[in-house]
Amino acid sequence: MKQIIALFILLFSFTSFAQIEGTWSGNIEIPNQKLPFVLHVSKENGQLKATSDSPNQGVQGIAMSSIRFENNTLFLSHDQMNMTYEGTLTDNQNIKGTFKQGTYSFTLNLKKEAKKNISEQSKNSNVKELKVSEELQGNLYETSNKETVILLIAGSGPTDRNGNTLGMAVNNSYKFLAEGLAENNYSVFTYDKRVVYSVKSQQEIPSLDFQHGIDDAQTIIHYLKNNLGYKNIIVAGHSEGSLVGMSASKKDVAAFISLAGAGNSIDVILKEQLNKQAPMLNDDTNKILTQLKEGKIVKDVNPMLQALFAEQNQPFLIDWISRNPQTEIAKLNIPILIVNGTKDLQVGQKEAELLHKANPKSSMVIIEKMNHVFKEVENDQQNMESYNNPELPIHKDLIKTIVSFLKQNKL
After folding, report:
1. In a domain, 156, yes or no
2. How far is residue 309's CA from residue 282's CA, in Å, rounded to a whole number?
3. Same domain, 260 and 231
4. Residues 247, 159: one domain?
5. 175: which DSSP letter?
6. What residue stretches are annotated with the Serine aminopeptidase S33 domain (predicted)?
7. Which residue(s) pair with 95 in the sheet?
8. Domain interval for residue 29
9. Residue 58: what pLDDT?
10. Closest Cα to residue 7, out of 55, 40, 72?
11. Which of 187, 171, 168 is nearest to 179 (CA)?
């Protein structure tokens, strides 16, 4: 996991704390491109601390390992990313320096940002960072609607509150969805999964089972209802988050929305995906998944499948495989919306149909030309490119579909 996050992060300096406190922004000058980042500097107990965001990577709140400022020169390091920074304060508004990661060096100059006025914020929502617990933190897109809030649960892997998979894909799908729903006066809460918290805080990734995700979702539901006072909690789960969400929606939830959620158990989905991508590994894949379905740890794993089936991942997969989405969604007696797209290469339309069949009272909508990360695409090339296009908006019909469903159910 130590290599899961690519380049980004920060810097700062100043002869007085008052000068350096605030928000700074700039670009890491990578050949043929610029990687934007934002640095936040504050003071705690007489000591400076800093965190940074990498907007294009959808990463927020990364803390530096060490900070030193001497003779108008700032020195920073981040041990987990093997990164250092050295910058010189040229005036009260600018720092010029060099960002290094491993053997690579890039220019990184920062400029201090002016404080934003309230008038610059969205007219329909105010984005607040909330800490439900130390390991569960996220953004509340708060609107004037104090009765209904939508909890958005992320898909598999180290996927953060914005819908970006750290070090792999940056598309801001959840951020766009939350903003669009907020524009329609629905408050939305998006959060970082525990694995994202561990990476951001430079901690070892704990061994987790599937149940922990369900427990976390239920903790957040309780927080939204009892601490923030929302009457109607809408759970919307994406991909893996669909199974997490439906499993967590048996109490205190007004409605459930499945976004590109599977109808089959994950072993069936993985067989289909891997058999398409690497047919030469069919026998190995099927053998491993059969043993995992039986609850057995697999010691002998083909090196080409290690990233997915590494031994430390297997307890999570065993728990996940044991859960059938059709069984879980059938247990729900609340309004249900099942959404999928015709261009989803990961979870096909038939998966939505299985969920709908398992709970016939549900509503199902298949959106033309929408892919797995909610983007509108025409062909396979656009489909793949959209996973790393943070500027491409989500499909316009997705927000319309969700809003229509909620209004039909008087939510």
Report:
1. yes
2. 14
3. yes
4. yes
5. H
6. 173-331
7. 89, 110
8. 17-112
9. 53
10. 55
11. 187
Cα-to-chain-centroid distance, residue 211 = 18
Domain harbouring 160, CATH code: 3.40.50.1820
Cα angle vertex 189, ends 187, 191, to 5°? 165
Please tell me what DSSP assigns to residue 303: G
Residues 153 and 94 in one domain: no
Among 195, 168, 3, CA closest to 101: 3
End position of a domain, from candidates 112, 143, 173? 112
**β-pair partners for 73:** 70, 88
User: Same structural domain for residues 83 and 199?
Assistant: no
Give me the pLDDT at residue 333, please: 97
What is the structure's pLDDT at 186? 97
Closest CA to 39 of 31, 49, 104: 49
| pLDDT computed for residue 276 by the predictor | 78
**Could you report the average pLDDT of every consecutive run of 10 residues in the chain (411 residues)?**
34 42 81 77 73 67 78 78 81 83 85 56 74 94 96 92 82 95 97 85 76 95 96 97 96 97 92 82 90 91 85 88 96 98 94 97 97 95 89 95 97 96
- Specify the DSSP class assigned to residue 119: G
Question: Which of 94, 112, 130 is the last residue in one of the domains?
Answer: 112
